[in-house]
From TrEMBL:
This is Beta-lactamase. The keyword Disulfide bond does not apply. It is an enzyme of class 3 (hydrolase). GO terms for molecular function: beta-lactamase activity; carboxypeptidase activity; penicillin binding. Residues 314-638 form the Penicillin-binding protein transpeptidase domain. It catalyses: a beta-lactam + H2O = a substituted beta-amino acid.
């Protein structure tokens, strides 16, 4: 047979497959479609794989967060005021009891089947109920071992166990919390290393001085919402949180962000029923920052010791004159901060409520200042030109305002009296006369200029904003009444509607000691903190000397000297003190009670410490004077200060040198 394929000379045409342009145009979109489909399938497979991985991860991993210990709080000299102590608990790791619980379950099931086999009519629990009975039996068996070792009689709470198992089985179950140190040691001796029963150690707040400065330091409460930063892995996982703590009052809450530790935690792989299998990632918790307060624990203890002897409510504040740092802030009645750690019982709450001990009196107590306010009235009169060193008044024992007679403070006539004696003897008549001459608005303006009527800005929560310096506009707006001369007379002796806090009175004394208008108090210690510089009082040397003369005389032979039974005078060897007493009255349902004040600063030559003390009388008709109750508290603070810092007491100097130092 002849060959059908010839060369090109034969005239035949050779055919090449795929060379048709029309077919190429048809194949291109098909190829693109197949490629798109393939890429989509790959992407979908990858996404499905990722989703499956994430789903598997979410199902098989759990995260446990552990709070970091809180930072410590110290006084200005490094004395520990708030720290952490170990808290011991006997716990069971339920994941290590699975085999034991299952064996118990089998025994329970056998027992019921045996009963059924002999034909007895019995309600057979479901498999779930048998498992729960088995779990309770096994856990209770371990609890009884602990009870036997420690001589306790703790009972297992079935409801708590069920709740824990259903919601937090990955966490250890607390059998007994707050073991005593000796119990901890005994139990530790008897526990095998691989036992599911272990002693778990956490930290809880510890207050070495119990009640001391309780309102300032504050307390903590349980925090079940601890968080970690975004860098910590496992944010998408089911997370369990060990209970931490957070500040709820005082410095504990004011400096929460500083004191709060940094949480740590562990990511675990778990099995199908949620028990731990292995640890995958871990980060240790970090303790919070320490806080150095401005308090001086020795001065604080001296103030509180004297105040507790009275068994009356009160407050004491001592400031560093130059920096405004708070050396003492005492409020009684108080409470034992260790009662709050780890939690406060209802009995303790009821006791605090009954004693009115929640109130932080230095910053929340609102009191008429009484005669201690006369120093401010003096400054207002000097600014207005109505009071000077040689200003005199003839005190006949009372002062007539319209048809009303206003008595002097002790009901006795002082006779012809000058400014310094009026301060020392606390003559009401002098201040009625010259307060009226100065005018209500001038008194109110001077008070506000010196910081009254507004918050001090102390680093504590809940400082009262309801202090009050009344004036004619306030009375008209609030009561719809006109201001009358009797209102000015009352205001001139710190009565009427005037309301201040003990902290405000202490800042007033610090400002007066520096010859300035404002003192900002601080509860943190900064060795580099500069001396405060604010607007000057603007007193002439003669006016300032007259005020000091009257205040010093008050501590030597004036109203404060009558206070002492064991202490002969406010004076401390080598220490010159400028002070002023005050006794304000308040009407209650039971009768009129007194508020006893004493304010001062020392040393006069080079002031270092400013103090305000207020004691609440609690018995109507009982004489509770500033000299009798408050001055001794100030004395004890200053005596301790002089003992600690004798180098800060100036050598005897002339009055001219005192004024030159201003």
């Amino acid at each position: 047979m002849a060959d059908n394929i010839t060369d090109g000379s034969s005239g035949m045409v050779e055919t090449h497959k795929g060379s048709n342009p029309r077919l190429q145009f048809f194949y291109i979109p098909i190829a693109i479609g197949f490629m798109t489909l393939a890429i989509g399938l790959v992407i979908q497979q990858v996404l499905r794989s990722d989703l499956a991985h994430e789903k598997e991860k979410a199902q098989s991993q759990r995260r446990i967060l552990v709070p970091g210990p809180r930072g410590n709080i110290y006084d200005r000299n490094g004395e520990l005021l708030v720290g952490n102590r170990p808290r011991f608990s006997a716990v069971l790791y339920l994941d290590e009891l699975r085999a034991e619980i299952y064996r118990e379950y089998v025994e329970i099931r056998k027992a019921y089947r045996a009963v059924e086999a002999v034909g007895e009519d019995v309600d057979v629990p479901s498999s779930t109920q048998m498992t729960e009975i088995a779990r309770f039996t096994v856990v209770d068996r371990y609890l009884q071992k602990v009870n036997h070792a420690l001589g306790r009689e703790t009972e297992l709470n079935a409801r708590n166990l069920r709740r824990h198992f259903n919601a937090q089985r990955i966490l250890p179950y607390n059998l007994i919390e707050d073991l005593e140190p000796d119990e901890y040691a005994r139990l530790l001796e008897q526990l095998p290393v691989n036992s599911p029963l272990q002693v778990y150690t956490t930290s809880t707040r510890y207050y070495p001085h119990d009640n001391t400065a309780s309102h300032v330091l504050g307390y903590v409460a349980a925090n079940r919402d601890i968080e970690v930063d975004e860098e910590f892995p496992g944010a998408e996982l089911m997370t369990f949180r060990m209970v931490g703590s957070e500040g709820r009052n005082g410095l504990e809450t004011q400096f929460e962000s500083k004191l709060q530790g940094e949480a740590g935690g562990t990511v675990y792989r778990v099995n199908s029923v949620g028990y731990r299998v292995e640890s995958l990632q871990r980060r240790l918790p970090v303790q919070g920052e320490n806080l150095i307060t401005s308090l001086d624990i020795d001065l604080q203890l001296a103030a509180e010791k004297r105040m507790r002897e009275y068994e009356m409510a009160g407050a004491a504040v001592a400031l560093d004159v130059n920096t405004g740092e708070v050396l003492v802030m005492a409020s009684v009645p108080d409470y034992n901060l260790n009662d709050f750690s780890p939690s406060l019982s209802q009995a303790a709450v009821d006791d605090i409520n009954a004693r009115g001990a929640w109130l932080n009196r230095p910053i929340q107590g609102l009191y008429p200042p009484g005669s201690s306010f006369k120093i401010l009235v003096t400054l207002a009169g000097m600014r207005a030109g109505t009071i000077g060193p040689d200003t005199e008044t003839n005190c006949g024992g009372y002062y007539r305002v319209g048809r009303r007679l206003f008595p002097c403070h002790d009901g006795h006539a002082h006779g012809q009296i000058k400014l310094h004696t009026a301060i020392a003897k606390s003559c009401n008549v002098f201040y009625y006369e010259h307060g009226l001459e100065t005018g209500a608005q001038a008194l109110a303006d001077e008070a506000r200029r010196l910081g009254f009527g507004s918050v001090t800005g102390i680093e504590l929560p809940h400082e009262s904003e309801r202090t009050l310096i009344p004036d004619p506009a306030w009375k008209k707006e609030r009561r719809g009444q006109s201001w009358v001369p009797g209102d000015t007379a009352n205001m001139s002796i710190g009565q009427g509607d005037v309301l201040v806090t003990p902290l405000q009175m202490a800042t007033f004394m610090a400002s007066l000691a520096r010859g300035q208008t404002t003192t900002v108090p601080h509860l943190t210690h900064d060795p580099e903190r500069a001396v405060q510089r604010t607007a000057p009082l603007g007193l002439s040397p003669a006016n300032y000397a007259a005020v000091l003369e009257g205040m010093e005389e008050c501590t030597i032979s004036g109203t404060s000297r009558t206070s002492f039974t064991t202490i002969k005078s406010m004076r401390i060897p080598g220490l010159r003190v400028a002070g002023k007493t005050g006794t304000a009255q308040k009407r209650t349902a039971k009768g009129t009670v007194n508020f006893a004040w004493f304010i001062c600063f020392a040393p006069i030559e080079r002031p270092q410490v400013a103090i305000a003390v207020m004691v609440e009388g609690d018995t109507p008709g009982e004489e509770t004077g500033g000299g009798s109750f408050s001055a001794p508290v100030a004395h004890d603070i200053l005596a301790k200060w002089a003992e600690k810092f004798p180098e800060l007491i100036p050598a005897p100097s002339s009055e001219a040198a005192v004024l030159a130092a201003r």
